Amino acid sequence: MKISTIAFRNVFRNGRRSLLSIIAIAVAAFSITMLFSVLEGIKVDVRHNSWNYETGEVRLRHAEFDRYEHLNPVQYVVPDYAGIVERLQGQPHVWRVSPRINVPAAAFRDDRQIAARGIGVDLELERGYQDLEDIVASGRLPEPGTSEAILGHALARDLGVELGGQATFLTQTRLRTSNAFTVDVVGFADFPMAGMNRTAFILPLESAARYLRMGDGVSEIFVKSDNGDFEALTSDVRDAVRESGAEGLSVTPWTEVSGGWAYLQMADVVYNIMALVFFILGSTVVINTTMMTIHERTREIGTLGAMGMHGDELVRLFFAEAAYIGVAGSLAGVLLGIGVTIPLQQIGIDFGVAMEMANMDISSVLYPVLNLRSTLVVFVYSSAVAMIASVFPARRAAKLKPVEALRE
Amino acid sequence: MSARPYRNGRTRGGFFLALAMKNLARHRRRTVITAGAIAVGVAVFIWMFSILQGFEAENDRNMSRYETGDAAIMGSGYWDERDTFPLDMPVEDPEAILSLLEAEEIAAAPRIAFRGDLIVRYDPFPEDGSLQRAFYGIDIERDSRVFALSEAIEAGRFLEPGNEEVIIGRWLADQLGAEVGYPVTVTTRTRDGFYQIMDLEIVGIFNTSNPFINRHKAYLPIAVADEYLEMRGAVTAVYLSLPGMLPADADPGPVRELLSEFDGIEVLGFYRLNEDFAEVMEMENAGTAIILILLGIIAVVGISNTMLMSVLERENEIGMMRALGVRDGEIRWMFTFEAAGIGLIGAIVGLILGALLVWHAVAVGIDYGVLMEIEMDFRFDGVLYGVWHFTSMIAAAVFAVLIAGVVALVPTRRMLRRRITDSLRHS
Amino acid sequence: MKHQTGRRIVATVVAGLAALLFVAPAPAQELTAEEIIERMEENQTHSTSIMEGRMIITDRFGERVSTYIAHTEGADRFLVEFTSRDEEGQRILRRDDNLYLYYPDAREVIRLQGSALRDSLLGSDISYEDMTGGRGIIDDYRATLIGEEEVNGRPTYKIRLEARGTNVAYPEQVYYVDREEFVVRKSEQFARGGRLLKETLILETTEQDGYIFPTHIEVIDVTRGSSGTEMIIDDVQIGVSLPANIFSLEELTW
Q: How many CB atoms lie within 10 A of CB B220?
C-alpha cells in the first residue's frame, strides 16, 4: 500500500486528534489572515487620508508657495485651473482630479477667536475623487455655487452653530487683504482625520474663489492615478502642465511631502514585526500540536517498526499525514479569515466610542482590507510549518528501537 | 475535596494532588511539550502587549515630552483661551507652587508662553521676513526634568539661563535659511499689553520627533521672557512629570489635593491636555485591542489544544483508575490539578521569558530604523520601545493557568460519562 | 477689554479725521506740553467731513492700492468704506469706542475684540488697534516738552508722551507738533524697552477752507524694516451734513 494512502487513512482513523490539529492550524492561519487584513485596513486608511486631504497622490502647486510656505503666501495660485484640469483629465494615468482652494479662516464667538480652515472643492469633481458622502455625519453636502458649507462637528460645537444656522469667517484674500463671508451650515462632518473636525469646513469651490478673489486660480490640484503608480502619474502631470504653458508650478508626488507616506514607511516595518510575532506563535502552536500527536503515537510507531517499516518510510508517513492536516487546517483558516473579512470590509469594525452630539453618531470604525497576496503567503506558510514540524519528532521516534517505542 | 484521613495520615485529596504532581514528572516529555506551548503563548503575549503599548504610547510620550507634560497647572480659564496665548490669566506665584511640588519630589517646569512676530533681516538671512510664532520662556534647569527638548538639539547648543538667546526648530530654520549665531528680532506684547521688542541670537536648532514643535515653536530662557514681558514672576503654566509608566496613567489627583489652597489655578490631567487627539487615541486603542485579541486566540487555542491532546491521550488510564475504584470526582480533581500544574510551570516559565523580553524591549528596544530609508522633517528615532505593564503580565500568566485547568476539565468529564469498558478498549 | 489709545494721529488719518486740522490764529509762546497736545487735539476735532483717499501698502510681495471714502463726525465716530475693486463695499465703523467690520459677503457684522484688534488692517503697517481709543492723549499719557526740532523744514515742539497706565499699546511716544500750525509733523512709537517700533511722517499738507490737512502720510514699521504704508487723501469736504444714522449698526449692513 502506498504511504500517501496509509497517511490519508490515518487522518480519518483518529478523527478527533486530526480535528484538534486542524483546528490549531486553522486558528493560527485565521488569526494571521485577520491580522493582515486589519493592518492592510489601517494602511489603506492612512493612504486615503493623505490622498484626500493632505497631498493627493500627486500635488500641483505654485512653486513659490512651497518656498514661502511658512508665510502662507496665498497669492501664489495655480492659474487657469479649469484648463489645467481638462488637460490633466486627458492624460492616461490620471484617474481623478481635485482642484482645491484653501481658505484660512477665523471665526468669532463672544470674545473668542476660533481658528478654522476652509477647503473649497469642486463638488462634482470631488465626488469622483473621494467618497464625499462618507464624511457627512448629519445633514448634507453643500450645493455647488451656493453659500452653503459642511462644518467639522467639533468646529460646529465650538462655534455653537446648529444645522440650518450660519457661521461667519474672516479670511485673507489672494491679494493679502481681508474679507469675511457667511456660510449656511447644511451639514456636520466627521472627517477621517480627527484633527480636522475641530478646524475644517468644506464649501463649494466657486464660492471660495469669490470670497478669496481667486479669479481662475486655485490653491492646489490633487491628482490620483487608477493604479497607484505615482511615478507615471507625476510625469503625466508634468506633461499636462508643460502643454498648458503654465509656468512656475511644482508637481510633487506624495512620497516626497506626505506625513502619511512617512508614517506608512514606519508602520510597514512595525507591522512586519507584528506579523513575525504572529507567525512565531502560530508556528509554535502548530509545531507543538504536531509534536504532541507524534509523541502520543510512539507506541504505534513501535508497532509499525516491529512490522518492518523502515525509518524514513515512517518519517514520510508522518510527513504525509502532517501535509494533509496542514493543508486542510490552513485552507480552513484562510477561508474563514476571508469569509470574516469580506463582510467587514463593508461594515467595518465599530469601536462604539460614540460621541454625543445633536442627532449625530460619531465613532471610530476600522475597515479591514483583504490582501490576496499575504493571504496566499499565510496559506503556504501554515501548511509548510505543519509539514516541517512533523519531520523532527517523527525522525526521533523512528530512530527508537521498536521495543523502546512500545514501552513508552 | 474530602477531608477523610487516607494512607499515611494524608487526606484523600492530598493524595491525588501528590499523584497529579507525580504524573507531571512521570510523563516528562508530555509535560515539557504542553508547558512549552503555554510558556511560549504567555511570553509572546506579554512581549507583544509591551511592544504595542509602547507603539501606542509613542504619541502620548511625544506629546508629554515636548508639549504637555503629564499634567499642567494653569490659571483658571487659561486652557480654553490657549489659542490666543493670553498673558492676563497666569499662575501668579509659581515659586510657592514649585517649592511645594519639589518638597514632594514632583518634577515641575514653569513656562511662559506667548505669541510674537519673529523678524529676520537680509544679511545674514537670505531675505527679509516676519512670521508669527509661539514662544516659550523656559526654566533651563527645571525644564529638562519634564521635557526632552534639551536632548533634541541638532546644531549649536541648548539655552543658557538668562542669556538673550533663542532656539528654533529645524523646519523653521530651513525655511528661513537660519543658522546658529544669526540674530533675530521678536516683537510681542507685555503682560500689560505694551509693545515689546527683543533682540535674540539663535544659539541652537532643535529637531524633535514632533514636527509641530519643529515648525511652530521657539524657546528662550524664562528670565528673559519674564523681564521683557514684565510678568513679575508669573508664568502661563507649570508642567509636571508624574510617576507612571505612560503619560496617560499619570494621576493628577494628588497634585490637585496638594495645591487645593491656591486660588485661581487649575490642574489639568493628560487627557484634558490632549483632548484634541482623543479620537486618534481611541482608534489606536482599538487597533491594539484587535491585534491582542487575535494573538490571544492563537495562544488560547495553542494552550488548550496541547492540553486537550494530553488528556485525551490518557483515556485508557482513566478507565483503569475507575476500574480500580477511584471516584469520578477525584479523577476530575487529579486531572485538573495536573493540568493546572502544567499550566503553572508554563506560566512561570512564560512570565520569566516574557519579563526578559520586555526588559529588552524597554531597555534596548527594537531598532527598525536600520531597515528603512526615509526622509522626514523631524528627527526619527527608528527604535520601538516597550513598556512595563505588570497587570497584563500577571493577568496573562493567571489566565494561562486557568485555561489549562478548565480545558482539562471538559474532556475529563466527557470521558467519565463513558462506560469504563469503552474507555479501556480505547487506544 | 481696555482700549488702546495709542497713536491717535494715525488712527485719525486712517479714518480721515486728522486731515481736519485747525490753523491756530496766533503762535503760542509759553505753552506747556499738555497745552500743546490739547491744542493739537482741539484742532483735530470738528463737526463732520467726507474724504476720499488711497492707501498704498508695500510688502515683500509687492505693492497694493486700496481706495476708500471716509465719513467722520467728532473725534471718535467714523465710517470708512472701501471702493477699490477687490475690497469694494467693505466697511469699518467706529462708534462707542468699538470697531465693527462689515463685508458684503458676510451677513453678520464682526465686532473686533481682544487679540483680534492687534491684527493688521488689510495687511498694512497699521493695526485695527491704532484706529481705536480717543478719550484724549492727556488722559492716557504724561506729556513732557523735551525740545524743539525741525521736521521737513518746519519748526516743531518735540513732546515725549509716557503712558500713565497699562491700557495703551505704546508705553512711550514722541510727537513733533508744528509750532505754528499745531499739526503733527512726525510721530514715533516706542516699545517697552525704549526701542523704536514705528514712525509716522506727514509728507504733505494742503490747506482748504481754513483747515490744514495732512494729505500724504507714511507709516513705517521700523522693526520689520518694511517698505511702509502710505496714505494719500485726494479730496475733502468739511462740515457737510451726513445722512442720519450713518454711524449706526443698522446702516452698516446695507
A: 23
